[in-house]
Fold this sequence. Notes:
The protein is α/β, with parallel strands linked by helices. It has twelve helices and 14 strands.
Amino acid sequence: MTTRPWIGLFFCTFFLLSGPLLAGQSDIDFALQGPAFEPGKPNPKLVTPEWIQKGITHPKSEGQPDLLIEMDQNLYDALTPIVEQYGREQKLNIRINRGTCGTGSGPLAKKEADMAGFCCPPAPYDRLPGIVFHTIGIVPTVFIVHPDNPTDRVEFGEVQKIYHGTIREWKELSTSQAHAKNGVIKPMARLHCETRPGHWRDILDNKNLFWQQTLFITSIPDMVDAVAANPHGFGWVSRWVVENPANKGRVKRLRLNGIDADDRAAVAAGQYPYFKVMNVTTWEGAAANPKADQLVAYLLDRFDPAKQGSYIVHARELRQQGWRFDGNELIGMPDNR
């Protein structure tokens, strides 16, 4: 299991001396964070020998596509146009279902999908025999406020305190301008994938650690609606959600630790501390599909998010900056973080 406490303790002095790019990192209570990654080996006890020897059987309702992909909604918006274009070029019938990490893991366990896409690092129970994870990249997660809120940045240590209830009013933020109406911050959280590592668990490890006044949101559109309707709202969404035409101008995104989420170099260098990990899966063994392997090779070798207007920072960029991989799977931040 890879966690961040030792990183924070060992490099506390480094954070204090490294200037505005890493400001606020030393204020994080690393003991309250969950694991960032949980690399490990498949557990064969989770399934039967008969299951291991079983191939993929597409549900009758899906027809007989060359590839059936269950895609988390965060990956769906970013990758579907790319995958569909690839399918047209290769003359493949590719069916992509939009869902969540949870709805994607079910068809894998039933061996009804050739691939799945996740917005979180896998948990141990996701590591079924034959499943291989491939990291396409990471995408910044941004904190959002009401557009009338003059606050333009926040420190990650302050974010943790907001959700833990240690910081409750806007005037307590060291980087905040005086809020027009001052008053109490209304934290809003969407606790998806509660047992998977990373994502919101980089703030607080579990729901019980969140301040009792936190409003828990069930969907991404509801998060935007809630923050847009409350002058004191404070929440988070993936970077591209803010630019969705339906959301344009309804909320304002904040710089984090002085860094704009669009600074690809800073994100790739590990200086932007809040992100989602974009993974897709393939099979080895009886369930393997060479067409899935070829699609992953395309996404890893030929897909260029910057040219496609995507906010994904590609695995190629992460490797260049020293992020740690096991095969194609991202398992840790750079050692200097």
